């Protein structure tokens, strides 16, 4: 993946999380490319409300799926979420906090910078 990836603030993309290892490419970054149909680019600090919301929408993020390298998430984990799901949660009032420095600029194709900033938390150390 290119090292010149940019976040929604226009600065170099920072790592989202390495424990659990996140990202479409499972490299700790919310990078994307044309094969990422879900646009997994929003670095979020998942909450119980969001996990329940996602499960109601048919995407259980809590159950481990080792065959896909997915450990299962719990509240407090950082994870690269699908931009459309985050936006949907935002409009439903249950969007998890976002780490802007680790959210890829392509999230702006789906979510507004205003909404992302309204849910922003400071950079979280890895």
TrEMBL record:
Source organism superkingdom: Bacteria
Alphabetical list of InterPro entries matching this protein: DUF2237 (IPR018714)
Gene3D superfamilies: Protein of unknown function DUF2237 (3.30.56.110)
PANTHER family listed in its UniProt record: SLR1628 PROTEIN
Protein name per UniProt: DUF2237 domain-containing protein
Originating organism: Alkalispirillum mobile
């Amino acid at each position: 993946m290119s090292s010149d990836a940019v976040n929604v603030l226009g600065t170099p993309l920072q790592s989202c999380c390495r424990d659990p290892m996140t990202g479409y490419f499972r490299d700790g970054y919310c990078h994307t490319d044309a094969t990422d149909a879900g646009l997994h680019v929003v670095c979020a600090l998942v909450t119980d409300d969001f996990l329940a919301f996602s499960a109601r929408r048919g995407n259980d993020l809590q159950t481990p799926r080792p065959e896909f390298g997915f450990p299962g998430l719990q509240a407090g984990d950082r994870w690269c979420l699908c931009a459309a799901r985050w936006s949907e949660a935002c409009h439903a009032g249950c969007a998890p906090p976002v780490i802007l420095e680790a959210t890829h600029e392509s999230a702006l194709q789906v979510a507004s910078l205003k909404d992302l900033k309204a849910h922003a938390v400071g950079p979280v150390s890895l």
